């Protein structure tokens, strides 16, 4: 009895696994066609400079407009794309598209692009050359290098420190800027942080969203800002959703903010009208305009 019930459970388990594997396989196949089919789109989320209260940049965030499933968010497909190597062509598309679109914005507005650890060539992919792809994207678009920022996580860099160090040095030489994403959630060594010479660090949303209620989150955020200061790195608060959070991150000395309080990521058309509305508004910065 118990045995047959057990095997029944096991059979369901196997069927579930097969079902999931099937879904994953379909996702992989669809993902493989998505570039040619023009199904990717970049959304942009504004970044506000807390010293000037002006828009100083936007982060490019990929969206997949799937023909039957509708809009798919990156957390669902980026890990799959990384696993099967498709993140390299996708990442190259993102670089080119972001540079091309940013060229139509005011010079004072930079564009930030997320770079996967695979694009660093850190996880055994041969023939991956991030530097070459960045150069190409800049040349083809005509975007000045200083207007492009590359965001990477601590974990992506720490995968292969020597390699990352070399790639980052070359990128810096090219004139692009760099940011550590989701800072405080990965593991990083302060020693390396110093030698990598990042331009920005982005305080992870998990600290910012608890900054009003959790004294630990607040003191971590304070410490990150202070750490950045001593190393000449500017800090950005990610995921600021409320006026109260904005006031606190300002008070503790963050240089920039990004978050729903100002705007959710939006299409490039909507981002362009956001820029216009924001700059026309007399009280620009002190109120959300979208
Ligand atoms: P990320 O780089 O840390 O991007 C910030 C994420 O937080 C975005 O999610 C953004 O929509 C969300 N966010 C921003 N402000 C707020 C807020 O105030 N509240 C809340 N609840 N969320 C906020 P999204 O667009 O779903 O992207 C998720 C992640 O996917 C990104 O995290 C990044 O790691 C990855 N990603 C996105 N686009 C790309 C890409 O082009 N290439 C690569 N390799 N990864 C990408
Ligand atoms: Mg990012
Ligand atoms: Mg982030
Ligand atoms: Mg993230």
Automatic annotation (TrEMBL):
Domain EAL intervals: 24-279
Highest taxon above the source species: Bacteria
Protein name: Putative signaling protein
Species assigned in the record: Granulosicoccus antarcticus IMCC3135
């Amino acid at each position: 009895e118990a045995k047959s019930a057990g095997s029944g459970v096991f059979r369901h388990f196997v069927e579930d696994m097969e079902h999931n594997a099937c879904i994953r396989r379909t996702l992989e196949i669809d993902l493989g066609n998505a570039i040619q089919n023009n199904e990717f789109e970049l959304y942009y989320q504004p970044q506000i400079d807390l010293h000037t209260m002006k828009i100083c940049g936007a982060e490019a965030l990929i969206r997949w407009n799937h023909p039957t499933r509708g809009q798919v968010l990156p957390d669902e497909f980026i890990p799959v794309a990384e696993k099967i190597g498709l993140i390299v062509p996708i990442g190259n598309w993102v670089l080119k598209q972001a540079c091309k679109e940013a060229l139509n914005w005011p010079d004072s507005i930079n564009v930030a692009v997320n770079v996967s650890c695979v694009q660093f060539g850190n996880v055994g992919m041969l023939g991956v050359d991030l530097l070459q792809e960045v150069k190409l994207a800049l040349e083809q678009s005509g975007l000045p290098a200083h207007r492009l920022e590359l965001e990477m996580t601590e974990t992506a860099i720490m995968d292969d420190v020597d390699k990352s160090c070399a790639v980052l040095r070359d990128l810096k030489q090219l004139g692009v800027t760099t940011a550590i994403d989701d800072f405080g959630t990965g593991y990083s060594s302060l020693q390396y942080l110093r030698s990598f010479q990042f331009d920005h660090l982005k305080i992870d949303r998990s600290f910012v969203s608890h900054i009003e209620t959790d004294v630990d989150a607040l003191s971590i955020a304070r410490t990150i800002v202070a750490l950045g200061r001593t190393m000449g790195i500017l800090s950005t608060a990610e995921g600021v959703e409320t006026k109260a959070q904005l006031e606190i991150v300002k008070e503790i000395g963050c240089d920039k903010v990004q978050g729903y309080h100002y705007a959710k990521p939006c299409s490039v058309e909507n981002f362009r009208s956001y820029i216009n509305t924001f700059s026309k508004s007399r009280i620009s910065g002190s109120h959300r305009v979208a």
